[in-house]
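Q: Give me the 3D complex with dihydropyrimidine-2,4(1H,3H)-dione.
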Amino acid sequence: MEFDTVIHGGTVVTTSEKFEGDVGIRDGRIVAVAEKLAGGERRIDAGGRLVLPGGIEGHAHIAQESSSNVMTADDYYSGSVSAAFGGNSSFIPFAGQHRGQSVDDVIRIYDERSKRSVIDFSYHLIISDPTEKVLTDELPRAFARGITSFKVFMTYDLMNLGDGGMLDILTVAREHGAITMVHAENNDMVKWMNRRLAAAGLTAPKYHAVSRPELAEEEAINRAIQLAKLVDAPLFVVHVSTAGGAAIVQREKLSGARLFAETCPQYLALTRADLDREGMEGAKFICSPPLRDHATQDALWHHIRRGTFESVSSDHAPYRFDRTGKFVNGDTPPYPKISNGMPGIATRLPYLFSEGVVKGRITLQQFVALSSSNAARVFGMTKKGAIAPGMDADIAIWNPEAKRIVLLADQHDNMDYTPLEGRELTGIPEIVLNRGAVIVEHGALKAREGQGRFVARARADMTAWPGYIAKELDSTQNFGADIAPIDGSIH
Ligand code: DUC
Ligand code: ZN
Ligand code: ZN
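A: Here is the predicted complex, encoded as structure tokens.
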């Protein structure tokens, strides 16, 4: 058999296996995995290295305006380059609808922005204005072209849909085989805290962490899950930051609900004490939900190990520590006026590898699932996330022993800080391939601007989950009331 590339002598890891073997690639696809493969126009020596599915970053904000209209520092070029250096072969940033905007226009805008990507990409839509036209016309059109997931917010006045709006969205998503992602924080609890803190004159960055209570996340996660269960719609809870929230997800998974969740490295690596740094330094660590404490870190690791989370995602939301980012509202604004988010697309996988695999908290197979395979399955990237014949040759070759210190000077994003500055990490993705092309090799970028392709995604594969049928929406128990499309046909 003829190969364009053979990766030989490495240890191949999938979600269930780990074996010494070679990988043969032709026309961008994996065509053979075997003990020994001869030939190949190019042979990549992976001796002493791990051969893993390329990372899929399922949560990143790239070339996106926030609801208060602040543009992220990274566009699809810098964001994708940074992702590639972090071991990712593809990513799914958000395409955000602002109120009054048509979804068709949103997609047109992001199609233009994403032309610069060096890695494969798709979008999750953010829906903030679910008008009749959006629900019945535009969302079905978006699903038809392979945008099969979107995010809704339970917080922020400009984004929050209310419970009824969420039920409408969940129902439409279910009908079209899409998955709804949710930012779960109770808006009124946060606003109430904001008012009390403002009245007391407590506006320094550290009070951001106080203003968004753990209970606000826990309450909203629970509510979001009950809403999704009522209409038996798949739900993905993004950026879970609390032990209580994770425990609710774990418990509700037992109900059969098609329920998925992620946490992020910042909730494992940092705490609210980081917001209490000198002067305005704490602004670097403002993200929502906020950073918590050491006990939460331990609990989140416990849940990662036990399978509560499908993914560990970066929530890369890059706002520079200057007037273009964190401080668009002045040099010393009160915390609610500081842009919300931090970078992390390049450090997500090295951090998870170092703190997870190297420190024995998770297995290599779990690392593969959390970094790539689960995102491929849940978000419908059917040709990605696995090393097997027929799959895209999206591969990251890791040196599991190499050490390095995270430094801003080594980053490839457009940021002026990294929250993990000075941390020593073990494990480096040395060579990264996307559809068979080497895009990163030993610290050098090999990809050209624009070589990434849009991935039309499939409907979420829900065959492995029974789902949850509420009695009141079950036609055998509700006197035949035909009020929601709950017919068990999801797949
Ligand atoms: N939610 C995110 O997912 N990212 C940045 C800010 C936010 O509220
Ligand atoms: Zn969010
Ligand atoms: Zn986010």
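A quick observation: The radius of gyration is 22 Å.
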